[in-house]
Specification:
The protein is α/β, with parallel strands linked by helices. It is about 25% helix and about 25% strand. The chain contains 13 helices and 30 strands. The strands form 7 sheets. An 8-stranded parallel β-barrel has the order 11-12-15-18-19-20-21-22, surrounded by 5 helices. It is elongated and about 85 Å long.
């Protein structure tokens, strides 16, 4: 018998039909037992359900038994085995015959096929050390630098065949060491659940429990995730309860009418899940637990949360607007679903995180449900992203008038637990690549892209960057072809990648950049108002390792303008020696070489409201980070 199998009981049926069966996948779907397979399906208000597949010559001879009035059907099929293809044949109340993939299928065939595949889930995991350490880790005081990746277009085999992909196991050999070497702490996959259309990037899911067969089997994906864990890298999966794919073989009109779905989404032409139906909640909540438990995912990034929260998301016609019983526009059922989702994960999977892609000003997204919040661990900071990219796209003579685009984010930086995202959505649909947004000639574009990176890395909040940014790819991302790795044969791109790698390692090596990310104790403005010179200076403070040791102090300076400074004074709070640890204008990164090679002693000359100051060289369109040497280092060297 499958180790994931839980036999159908009255208690499990009750939990499923009340929206509380968090491990429904252990009962529903196709489970291998001695001598055959047990099939279980929820399809209420239909005349009959049959299982058809390789095991019976596709003649629909396996008739399922209806369990009372629960809407649940089940049967045991002798001789069915792992690898067999199957579907459910449903006769609706109106006499219509439907052929449906299994909503709980653990694998589906590669598109354009639509069959489900009987699959053994059990896997001999070898990442126990990672999983145990994850339980003890506080992500809020740990580094988080995420490499967002679309597995089908990161790299492809050189055959050039549009159908040729690297498999999960091949990616374990090439993607894992790359992410490790580049210094990222986490990888985030665009949806790996089965989907029929490549151009949807995985966001139109039909097989919620099935990893896409484009890249291999369920065991192959587990091997890839395990390989990341062995390399010390966390894995976050995109999870998509905010979209509902309309393909006929999927959940759409599953019993001949709307069962899993509610209304059509006005912007996307797809449906929304019916969060008021308890069986739908059991399905989705169980699905979240499935990816965290069966695949050892370290987090779920929930796509399109705003579209779930608002009844009228995307609706501009006031005559078509809907309101809840309190007169508001919040979808009360979706709100409660998200709260339960986060509570469930927080109490069942230690160390796993949930991340909301939420683009509105909905309050308390990352606050606990008991305090009126939704309960997510993190929220994408879309305000920071939009303001920053608008500023960085502005040509230099006009930046002075847009200075508040850089400073406004700190007025709300600690209202939520934020991730700063420069994601796939920002490099498609005519928005241009990140480096393509930078004004000026080629030299200034590369300088601007490096400056954007160092500004993101020193701003409070965890980090996320989409693949391709690290090689300064000029064209937009296209899911049907690989990144332009040939660019690394050109000096500017090669040195840009070196800069991103060095910056990533600077981030992980310096606690001041991540150990106090959610309070003003970790950040102080030095001078936020130098709009005439387009310069920002601020300090980052790390958590003190002990009562006897001081927290790390970093001074951050970014010059968004085109004027260089050989003598630029920056106020600092403490005396001592300050050493530049990275400068985006370094010649090894294809900069002009305006760097600070010697350690700088703070002078007892007040500046910017600080009692001391340091005098530094400031690059054009560049940034630098200075670290104050701790007293113990100075004493050790006899200085």
């Amino acid at each position: 018998m499958s180790k994931t199998r839980e036999k159908l009981t009255e208690e499990l049926l009750y939990l499923y039909n009340t929206g509380k069966l968090y491990h429904a996948y252990r009962t529903f779907g196709a489970h291998i037992e001695d001598g055959g397979v047990q099939f279980t399906l929820w399809a209420p208000d239909v005349k009959s359900v049959r299982v058809t597949g390789d095991f019976n010559g596709w003649d629909a001879s396996a008739v399922m038994e209806h369990i009372g009035d629960t809407g649940v059907w089940t049967c045991f099929v002798p001789g069915a085995k792992a690898g067999d293809h199957y579907k459910y044949e449903i006769e609706t109340a109106g006499g219509k015959h439907l052929s449906k993939a299994d909503p709980f299928a653990f694998m589906n065939v590669k598109r354009p096929g639509t069959d489900s595949i009987i699959t053994e889930l059990f896997y001999e995991w070898k990442d126990s050390k990672w999983m145990k350490e994850r339980e003890k880790q506080d992500t809020f005081t740990s580094p988080m630098n995420i490499y967002e990746c679309h597995l089908g277009s990161w790299k492809r085999p050189e055959s050039g065949d549009g159908e040729a992909f690297y498999t999960y196991r091949e990616l374990a050999k090439i993607l894992v060491p790359y992410v490790k070497d580049m210094g990222y702490t986490h990888v985030e996959f665009l949806p790996v659940m089965e989907h029929p259309l490549d151009a949807s990037w995985g966001y139109q899911v039909t097989g919620f429990f099935a990893p896409t067969s484009r890249y291999g089997s369920a065991h192959d994906l587990k091997h890839l995730i395990e390989s990341f864990h062995k390399a010390g890298i966390g894995v976050i999966l995109d999870w998509v309860p905010g979209h509902f794919c309309p393909d006929d073989h999927g959940l759409r009109d599953f019993n001949g009418s709307k069962l899993y779905e509610s209304i059509v989404h006005p912007d996307w032409g797809t449906y929304k899940f019916d969060f008021s139906r308890p069986q739908v909640r059991s399905f989705l909540l169980s699905n979240a637990m499935y990816w965290l438990e069966e695949y050892h995912a370290d987090g779920l990034r929930v796509d399109g949360v705003s579209s779930m929260l608002y009844l009228n998301f995307g609706i501009s016609d006031k005559s078509k607007m809907r309101f809840n019983k309190y007169g508001g526009e919040g979808d009360l059922d979706a709100i409660e679903f998200l709260k339960e989702f986060n509570y469930m994960i927080g109490t069942n999977t230690k160390g796993a995180v949930t991340i909301a892609e939420e683009s509105s000003a909905w309050p308390l997204v990352t606050k606990p449900p008991k305090d009126g919040g939704l309960g997510f661990h993190y929220k994408w900071n879309m305000g920071w992203m939009n303001d920053t990219l608008e500023y960085m796209s502005t040509d230099f003579p006009w930046r002075e008038n847009n200075h508040n685009k850089l400073t406004f984010s700190m007025t709300y930086a600690y209202s939520e637990n934020y991730i700063l995202p420069l994601s796939h959505d920002e490099v498609v649909h005519g928005k241009k690549s990140l480096i393509g947004r930078m004004p000026g000639d080629t030299w200034r574009q590369f300088a601007g892209a490096r400056l954007l990176a160092i500004y993101q890395m020193t701003h409070p909040g965890k980090k996320l960057n989409f693949m391709g940014h690290e090689i300064a790819q000029f064209i937009e991302w296209r899911e049907y072809e690989p990144l332009e790795w040939f660019l690394l044969g050109y000096e500017n791109h090669e040195k840009f990648q070196v800069f991103i790698k060095d910056l990533n390692h600077v981030y992980t090596e310096h606690p001041a950049l991540w150990s106090i990310d959610n309070s003003w104790d970790g950040f102080t403005w030095i001078d936020p108002d130098d709009r005439q010179q387009n310069v920002l200076t601020y300090l980052r403070r790390g958590k003190a390792p002990s009562k006897k040791e001081e927290g790390e102090l970093l001074i951050c300076a970014v010059n968004m303008g085109v004027k260089a400074f050989d003598e630029f004074d920056i106020g600092v709070p403490e005396p001592g020696y300050y050493k530049e640890i990275i400068n985006s204008d370094d010649a090894k990164y294809a900069g002009s070489g305006r760097v600070n090679t010697r350690q700088i002693r703070a002078r007892k000359k007040p500046a910017h409201g600080m009692p001391y100051s340091i005098r530094v060289r400031m690059p054009v369109v560049g940034g630098a980070i200075f670290r104050k040497k701790p007293e113990k280092e100075i004493k050790r060297k006899g200085k």
